[in-house]
Write a structure and sequence with these properties.
- There is one protein chain.
- The chain has helices at 9-29, 36-43, 47-54, 57-80, 86-103, 105-114, 120-146, 155-167, 181-196, 206-216.
- It has 236 residues and is an all-alpha fold.
- The chain is elongated and about 65 Å long.
- The N and C termini lie far apart (64 Å).
- The relative contact order is 0.12.
Length: 236
Amino acid sequence: MPRPPGHGPGFEVRRQKIIDTAASLFARQGYAATSINDLGRAVGLAKGALYYYIGSKENLLIEIQSRVLGPLLARAKEIAALDEAPLLRLRLLSESLLTIIFRRLDHIWVYEHDYRSLGGDELATVLRQRSDFERLITGLLTEAVEEGSFRAVEPHLATLEFLNLHNHTYQWVRPDGSWDAAYLSGEYCSTLFRGFAASEGALPDVEALAADFKRARPELPLDPEELWEEAVSVAS
């Protein structure tokens, strides 16, 4: 059997393609029902060459989880740290989450259905990342209560409401449909914020704030898979 290419420029590209193909297969067939031979046929590699790229089938599952959780959690931390109103940060975080759901539907499906197939340290890492993401949402909801925008909602329950509304989107959304991530985020947040509101008058126009933010800060994209850049200062 010919030795697969080394860790040159093409290695990571090929490995990521294998991970994406595995996500598609796992989403259609299920993680347990998909064999290494199935994946090898899909990517045109013999078993030995395939293991060279992925290590093990379980490692593939870890990589699929990381493809979603890694950039999403990093972007959520950056959004939560912005010096902006908590409702705006919740709205930006919502759109960021929906953006990666639209882009990585197969990965999200596997993430939601098969992460419990992991064990030991790998499962503990995924569960810790999920908890970290949830804590960021809880923190922003709590800030919104403390500043008087939201009534005294129970933070954990409010976090579950936020997640339930967003996390099931992957089951029905069509990336080529008429609703994009920004539109759904606006609708979801309008529903949630009005339900959580201390009073109708306490709510700012969050959609206008989000539009202003995106227009003024193009170097801070909401897409979790893009880099945030330093703002370019213009000398007067």
